[in-house]
Amino acid sequence: MKKRWRDSGLKGWLYLLPAILFLGVFMVYPLIDVFVYSFEEGYNSASQTHFGIGAYNYAYVLHDPYFLQAVRNTFLLVIVTVPLSTVIALLISVGLNAIRPLRNLFQTVYFLPYVTNTLAVGLVFMILFKKTAYSDGLINLLLAWFGGHSVDFIDGPYWAKMFVLCLYTIWVVMPFKILILTSALASVNPQLYQAARVDGTPAFRIFMRITLPMISPMIFYLVITGFIGAFKAYSDVVALFGTDLNAAEMNTIVGYVYDMLYGDSGGYPSYASAAAILLFAIVLTITCINLLVSNRNRNHLQGR
Amino acid sequence: MKVVLQNLTKNFPGRGKKNAGEVTAVSGLTFEIPDGELVGLLGPSGCGKSTALNLISGLLKPTAGRIFFGEDDITDLPPENRGVGLVFQNYALYPHLTVQQNILFPLQNLKGKDRLSKAVMLSKANEAARLVQIDELMDRKPGELSGGQQQRVAIARALVKMPGVLLLDEPLSNLDARLRLQTREEIRRIQRETGITTVFVTHDQEEAMSISDRIVVMKEGVVQQIGKPQAVYDDPANLFVARFLGTPPINVFAGQCRGGRLYLGEDVVLGVSGIADQEVYVGVRPEGFVLCETGCLSCEFGSVEVMGRDISVVSRHGASLNPTIRSIISAENRVDAKDGTVRFSLKPQKVFLFRKETEERLYGEITE
Amino acid sequence: MSGGRNYSNMNSGRDYIRIEKAAKARKTTANAVTYFLLAVWAVIVLFPFYWMLLTSVKSYSAYNAESIPKFFTLSPTLQNYADAFTAVPLGRYLLNTTIFTVVTTALMLAVITLAAFAFARLDFRGKNVLFVLFLSLMMIPSELVIITNFVTITNLEMRNTFPGLILPSVTSVFYIYLLKENFEQIPDSLYYAAKVDGTSDLKYLFKVMIPISKPTLITITILKVIECWNSYVWPRLITDDENYYLVSNGIQEIRENGFGRENIPAMMAAVVVISVPLIVLFLIFRKKVMAGVSRGGTKG
Q1: CA B8 → CA B45, B65, B165, C183, C246, distances in Å?
Q2: B5: enclosing H helix or E strand
Q3: Is residue C170 within 8 Å of C111, Cβ to Cβ?
Q4: Nearest residue of chain B to residue A202 (CA atoms)
Q5: Which of A177, A208, B91, C81 is the most exposed place for a label (fewest CB within 10 A)?
Q6: What is the pLDDT of residues B42-83, one digit of tens each?
Q7: CA B184, CA B205: separation in Å to the nearest integer?
Q8: pLDDT higher than 70, residue A47
Q9: How far apart, in whole angstroms, are the C-alpha atoms of residue A219 and residue A232?
Q10: C89-296 under CATH 1.10.3720.10, yes or no
């Protein structure tokens, strides 16, 4: 039982005032406002007037080839990077869990990308992959060693650009996944493994029947956060291909929102709002589907 | 299957800079467990009993010494090839599998010619479940079971592959007192029915004494005494064993052997022969006291604790190493403490003498 | 279930040696493969860092003369670092980012500490409803609210000012939640004891709760610093005056316009300068950073 102290009723609100104020101005109000914007037709940002209410903004965005391109890019990025990064992270974490010497060193190294500036390292990736007048770049050199043809990964064909983007995205998201999976693996009761060993269980079976089910909640958590994160990809794309993403055919949905809001083609908060809400709807849908599928999978894994 | 441990030693590398040297968990462990017996490995925590168990299971490799199952030297064999069943203190059931899947798990590992058909596996699992009386719970998950039920599942899982040796690591310590009593009888019954050689580790002397065919008392990695529970209780090899077994614990006095007599302080209590004159520790079991007007041991009366069938007289004596002396006598006795003293005579067979320096038992004849 | 002698792995002595040898060999191979794969990933992670360091000490002419990139250099130079600071206002970017990071983090700590204290310790009408509302805000992606915030800040004529940069990110519902959980673990009896001694709420907060929750506060600080140092999208929207650029925007600016497009060694020098502070911070607080991130941070 908490005792009520005199006048602490008002006091509570007083302590919360700064938080409520900031959240109100910069989260709650904008949240309502973005819906309003998205339905205001013909909004003019200079005069701040509009001449109608309706779904025109959505229709415009959905028919904008740049938006469709952005949606295609984003989906491709999500479908490639989320499963791939999760599987690689799982392999690495299992490896880390199996060794003793050098484990801390590896863990530290693997975490480095998390604390680096996405824009800055993106620049390094760019020069590694880029073909210039002077030099084909390091990656093309390696390709040549293995008998491949040189490709400009930054200004070249679509697949090459997508390849670099996926690679860089995986490089960036890996530290978080490895960290979560290693601690999940470490928290499995070691006696379960001892019990299985005494019973002569082969290593692969231990992994499939004990390890995977025990860490499956964390894997599903990573898949869901991975989906959400990849759908919001933007700054790593800018890092590789510059700010004019539409010209590079590499725009993402978030990039489209910002371009609509600001920049060379900007000044259309209504279109930006409509696109942002569409993104939110997509993310929400995918997350719900994920939750449904993972629930069924979990039950299946656990033998229900 | 007979189990033989020969000179088994296990050192662990020291941790940290402070104690960089090796830590010896078990040293020179030598004993034999006859086929079909239930042996209790007994000792205070940190005495190496769990290490000894893990050496037998193969989860640890000994630094020196050999282990035999029957005639086979299995010292270098990995655990999966030893055919042992292991039950952990906290059961280590697979939480995501049902009871039935848990019990089936070891059978599904069998490969090649040992491989069993589904029907055989199921019937074996059912048999094991019936043996430990959990056949009604087959579709539950471990999280939905009580501690006692989980314990039974763990035993069934260990038994289902018909191990040559069953190893139990503190199997009862996570159960409440009533359940512990019941489960230990259950373990005894299962062991009798299957006839599997069983080693079971505990720090609870009462538990070990009540169900073991034989107990091994350990201290700091070294075996102190091996024998049938009653024999060890009646004839402890040293002061540690005497103190470790029995509730209430043995009463210890500083005493002297002088001229064929045993002195506790100034009181001459018993006669001794065959022991040279020296300072000794004297252990007296609580049931070794007899209330007697003319008794030779005069104590300051403390209180009487009623225990039903018996009463416990709490008193003090100058030579006692314990703060109080606890004696257990039949409730039919009347305690009347005139001027605050009670007098006891001692039963010679309940009195043990120990050399003061080594705390080893001194054997000689003790008389009234 | 009788007998207990059905010992399926009964083997002769020689088999034991064979089994043991096979087990050992398997283990050695598995170990070697594991280390190899782990090392491969370590190289993939480290190589970009190596390349940026290497390129940053190659001279401009040497770099451009290499049509086949070299994996090392025999004549390292620090000229690129001097160029990075003189040709573009890199020092200015660093200063701006430092100011932004320190002020944002400090303000946020104050706001969330007060809020978490109210939720954890004080009783008032509507507390539970308000807390649920706060929690539901955690699900709102920043992309959704950034549009209006951009308009708001523009209307307030706070573009290209520090308040405009800082104010939208001085609250975090997630950190309030984290800190509240932590505060609630402090036993009530401590609070009542302090009350009996006549300690005020604010004094109790500063003398008892904050010191006890220091580990969590440090974790939050580190995570927020990382977030601030790397933030790109909001600063990009709200600043177009070079004097208010943060490092991320600075890098983008350098990439688009600085040094001329080809002075890659100078670019890499700037990248090194920008990356070093956080890497140093991470190496010092390695355990805290990793524990903090695993407790609840996704990048961005």
Answers
A1: 19, 4, 18, 52, 67
A2: strand B3-12
A3: yes
A4: B109
A5: A208
A6: 999 888 898 999 999 988 889 999 999 988 888 888 888 888
A7: 13
A8: no
A9: 20
A10: yes
pLDDT tens string C239-289: 888 889 998 888 888 888 766 556 888 889 999 999 999 999 899 988 888
- Could you report the per-residue pLDDT of C27-49, keeping only the tens digit for each? 888 889 999 999 999 999 999 99
Site from C27, C36, C41, C132 to mutate, A interface, most A CB atoms within 10 angstroms: C41
C-alpha to C-alpha distance for B217 and B41, rounded to whole angstroms: 6
- At C121-160, the pLDDT tens digits run 888 888 889 999 998 888 888 888 888 898 889 888 888 9
Which strand ranges, in their side-by-side order, compose the sheet holding B222-227?
B84-87, B165-169, B197-202, B38-42, B214-219, B222-227
Using CA atoms, how far apart are residues A183 and B135, in angstroms rounded to an integer? 37
Alpha-carbon separation of residue C1 from A206, B103, B162 (angstroms): 26, 14, 7
ipTM over 0.90: no
Residue among C34, C146, C256 whose CB faces A242 most closely = C256
C168 closest CA partner among A27, B3, B219: A27
CB contact under 8 A, C10 and B81: no
Low-confidence ranges of chain B (pLDDT < 50): none
Please tell me the pTM assigned to this model.
0.82
pLDDT at C6: 40
Measuring CA to CA, how many Å separate A222 from each of A82, A179, B223, B284, C294?
9, 11, 51, 66, 11
Span of A100-109, C98-107, C285-294 with lowest mean pLDDT = C285-294
| H or E element that contains C256 | helix C247-256
Return the structure tokens found at A108.
């530290």
**b/e per residue, B156-178, with b = 16+ CB within 10 A?**
bbbbbbbbbbbbbbbbbebbeee
Contact criterion met (CB < 8 Å) for A199 and B59: no
d(CA B85, CA A196) in angstroms, rounded, equals 11
> What superfamily would CATH give domain A65-301?
MetI-like (1.10.3720.10)
3-state secondary structure of B173: coil
Q: Structural domains in chain B? A: 3-243 (3.40.50.300), 249-367 (no CATH)
**What's the gap in Å between the CA of C27 and the closest CA on chain B?**
12
Q: Report yes or no: A262 at the C interface, CB cutoff 8 Å.
A: yes
Angle made by CA atoms B107, B112, B113, in degrees to the nearest 5: 90
